[in-house]
Design a protein that fits this description.
D-Maltodextrin-Binding Protein, domain 2, 2 domains, five-stranded mixed sheet, 8 helices, Transporter substrate-binding domain-containing protein, signal
Length: about 250
């Protein structure tokens, strides 16, 4: 009798297993409103250059998502704390790989440019290191943010006065306009969007391209270490299938 009861219990658990697995797969997906990369929708989801491919990857992988609009610094805390949490559009760095898992890249930036106050006048065709080494230069950078390995390394090498901000990109642009700093960094696609949407006027800024700065870096879906390798694998499969169709 006990044998039959055990078999019935095992059969019930086997039937429940797929449902339990799907429940475990539900991911809280964090993002911040950062056009054109991430644009918050009326339903709480995100679209944009990184938002759309991330949403498509989760959908194609059959993984349920709970969207969560969270400031960038808080996203890092959430990922470090663990649990079924992922975040959209982050660069992969050695430091972050200590506490997070990354999918295949979902987007590659165009080269990074400088958005500068018109009064800032570096030498024509100046390289990044030369610009950062200029006497009295004031650089605005986002707190806990990576600009990719090339720019991050350049910032570490120089003694330029760095103002760190945890504000939005638009708020940072206002500091540039107010001449509180000389310039900030942005990818080419974001720079154009920010200037157009600022309402300040394109004539109040200038974009400076640096000949030595390489093509933009890849952006990824970043997940906590608690997210299973199976989930990462399914997302990677969906991302790879999408790219192979292009």
């Amino acid at each position: 009798m006990r044998h039959h009861t055990f078999r019935r219990l095992s059969a019930c658990l086997a039937l429940l297993a797929p449902a339990l697995a799907m429940a475990d797969d539900k991911i809280t997906l964090s993002f911040n409103d950062r056009p054109p990369y991430l644009v918050a929708g009326a339903d709480g989801s995100a679209s944009g250059l990184t938002g759309t491919p991330a949403a498509e990857a989760f959908h194609a992988a059959g993984i349920e998502v709970a969207w969560s609009k969270v400031p960038p610094n808080r996203q890092l805390v959430v990922i470090k704390e663990g649990g079924p949490n992922c975040a959209i559009g982050w660069y992969k760095t050695a430091e972050r790989e200590q506490f997070a898992k990354f999918t295949k890249p979902i987007y590659r930036d165009k080269p990074t440019v400088i958005i500068a106050n018109p009064k800032f006048a570096p030498a024509e065709h100046a390289k990044l290191g030369e610009i950062l080494a200029a006497k009295g230069v004031r650089v605005l950078v986002k707190e806990n943010f990576s600009y990719g390995p090339y720019i991050d390394a350049a910032l570490d090498k120089v003694k330029a006065a760095q103002t760190k901000s945890n504000g939005t990109s638009t708020q940072m642009l206002q500091l540039v306009n107010a001449n509180s700093v000389d310039f900030m960094f942005a990818s080419e696609e974001e720079a154009s969007y920010l200037v157009e949407q600022s309402g300040i006027g394109a004539g109040n800024f200038k974009q400076i391209r640096m000949p030595d700065v390489p093509a933009g870096d890849d952006r990824y879906i970043m997940c906590s270490k608690d997210v299973s390798d199976d989930v990462i694998g399914r997302l990677n499969k969906a991302i790879g299938a999408k790219k192979s169709k292009k």
